[in-house]
Amino acid sequence: MFKASFPNLFLLTKNPIPRKKLVSDIILIALLSGPVAAPFLASLPMFPFGIIAKIIYFMGGMVCPQPEMGLMISPPHLLAVCMRCYGLLLALLTTRLIYIVNQGKGFYWLDQYRFLGAAIATFLTSAYLAEMIAQTLNLWQYDNIVVTVFGYVAGLGIGLFVTPVLYRSNQT
Fold first, then answer.
1. Number of structural domains, the chain?
2. Reported pTM
């Protein structure tokens, strides 16, 4: 008799990708692509793209303190989050890519330092808040490059601490 076999689509090596890693990567891809996709989806006149865009804008508004400062991607529609938030997401992508290369073997992965690592991560993450407070106090004007850099530094603090925890192999 005929027996059909279907390859495992998630089988990139001989061992399947653990579910926690796969879910983490899918969430990261969604976080990176959603804010960029929203303006393009909003500009499409067909159902259900407008609804999807509204959902993404709603979620962006729930996590971003200044979504109205997003970049104009597809006029008149903005990126779903400000560049400070998107800089943070880009740093999370950076730490994920670095982790793929070295599997968490490096002095800069903060989880290995426990409380000191947590303190360093907290300090780096506070760059986000410090820049936003400085902007609110009119110490400087909102500038997409400045806020992206501060968001990126904050994202590095989060990524360098959390990425090894999320992606560490259970065998080590």
1. 2
2. 0.86
